Amino acid sequence: MSGLGLLTYDEAAAELKCSRSTLKRRIAAGDLAVFEDGGLRLIREVELRRYVLERTKRRVSDRGRGVDVTGVEVAAGEKLWEARA
Questions:
Q1: Which pLDDT tens digit goes with each residue over 13-37?
Q2: What is the DSSP secondary structure assignment for residue 41, as one 8-state letter?
Q3: How far is CA 47 from CA 7, 40, 41, 67, 83, in A?
Q4: Per-residue DSSP letter, 82
Q5: Where are the beta strands (DSSP E) in 1-71?
Q6: Where does residue 55 rank: exposed (0-12), middle (13-18), buried (19+ CB within 10 A)?
Q7: pTM of the complete model beyond 0.70
Q8: Which end of the chain is less enclosed by CB atoms within 10 A, N or C?
Q9: What is the pLDDT of residues 46-76, one digit of tens each?
Q10: How is 59-81 classified by DSSP, letter by letter?
């Protein structure tokens, strides 16, 4: 069966750009689910995507010091449309 989207630990670690040991720690911590069949252990691609998406953060503020939006400095409490370019 092809198309199941199953990765070995080495393949999954390469996708995450981490070591196999780091990947195993994430699995042991319960952060990543593993497909097991006898002694075979694989990670589903969809599980790897979920893991990455859950940990993807978008920075929206700089702790009250304003946010640089396309070159416009926005002071804390000021709205973007009120900022001076």
A1: 999 999 999 999 999 999 999 999 9
A2: E
A3: 10, 17, 13, 33, 42
A4: G
A5: 6-7, 35-37, 40-44, 67-69
A6: exposed
A7: no
A8: N
A9: 999 999 998 887 666 555 555 454 555 656 6
A10: ----TTS-EEETTEEE-TT--GG
